[in-house]
Design a protein that fits this description.
- This protein is α/β, with parallel strands linked by helices.
- It folds into 2 domains: 260 residues, no CATH class; 169 residues, no CATH class.
- Helices cover 27% and strands 25% of the residues.
- The strands form 5 sheets. Strands 14-22-15-21-16-20-19-18-17 form a 9-stranded mixed β-sheet. The protein has a 6-stranded mixed β-sheet with strand order 3-4-1-6-9-10.
- Helix 4 links the parallel strand 9 and strand 10.
- The radius of gyration is 23 Å and the shape is globular.
- The termini are far apart.
Amino acid sequence: MRIAVAGIGHETNTFSSLRTTLSDFWVRRGEECVPREIAEEFGAEVELAPCLIASATPNGMVTLSAYTELRDELLARLKLRMPFDGIYLSLHGAMEVEEIGDGETDLLRSIRRLVGPNMPIAASLDLHGNLSPEFVASVNILTALRTAPHIDGPETRVRAFRHLVQSIRQGVRLTTAMKKLPLLLPGENAVTATEPSKSLYAHISELESNEGIWDASLMIACAWTDSPHTSVSTLVVGEDGERASTLACEYGDLVWTKRHEFGPEVATIPLREAIARAMAATEGPVFVSDSGDNVTAGGAGDVSFMLGKLLTAGAKDVLYAGITDPAAVEACVAVGPGETVELSLGGKLDAINCQPLGITAKVLRVEGGTATVEVDDITVVITDGRRPFHTLESFEPSGIDPLSKRIVVVKQGYLAPELRERCSETFIALTPGFTDLRIACLPYRNLSRPIYPLDPI
């Protein structure tokens, strides 16, 4: 048995004024593109035909030139590796491309033109994917992550690959059925360890216990991708398409009954209240999410609005991680540690939601594209590129132990487990940016309406 391995993955924030170019993609070709867990589990029994896998961190629209270059190379490599018995694709599900729109649908349309309608195809997805009916109809097997924060990537990829191999061996033609709901959820409202998501994801095992049903997924979708296909959906993979469709609809109905119960796992409060609450805390560290500039969902990472409010409020013993500003990093490098520097911080990538913030700061450290400065008892980490601070290791270049601070601000939505387990308290501040959690205020133009909670239904 011979299986091709390929994929292009991106979570696109269409509210961002930034663009995702070819240089933003991490591209692996040939043997290096095979996920390690797939190679370890199937390398001895399946002949792998690796082609190309490309992915980029969440950002604005993918440029047409970047996408078409990657797509055309992927197709050329697939053609060179033919024949094969099936294709495994590593995708995200929320890629939007300039002038094209839905990137996954275009990619599958192109692949089907190359390999024909009968080639078995399986794909692994992020649960924050927005799926079109055409895309779902083009793929036999779809399975998505089941955890948010995401910790089950390897298991999901192996599950998709295993389904593909077993279906080919058994000569079974699988179908994925989808039920789309008129429901829009920010990812922070569907953390999988809390209700109702916890029970809804646990329901997957019950669905898979049905005869002839191989897999099921609950797609939360990406609320910051303004497309006609942005909404919560349910997927069921089965041997009988009609039975799979019935179960997908029943699963969707169950999700719909819980629509009023979805919400953030921690307090989500206006910025002024969030700052006051953090300053009043008697024990640290308190982690506060600057949610509107969440780089893990396509935020620019340079909105300095919350930092300005912290300075005005006189907040003390604060670590603000961080601000993306290459020019500010260069200025800190030029003067060196121990010196004072005048900075015009942030507001350059996202000039829509904030203006640059002028500060006078003492340089504490410069290392590896990171500058750590201090202003009025607030330590600010400045980076030369967009990056999240979601693990303890990610703070190491700053030279600051976040657990030693009373207040730590990160540009995320929900906290990753490592940080969540080590803080005394955490909550989300409602702040401006490309990932504003106040979705009713976002300028949607392409959503299929009506959709809850934006519209009365």
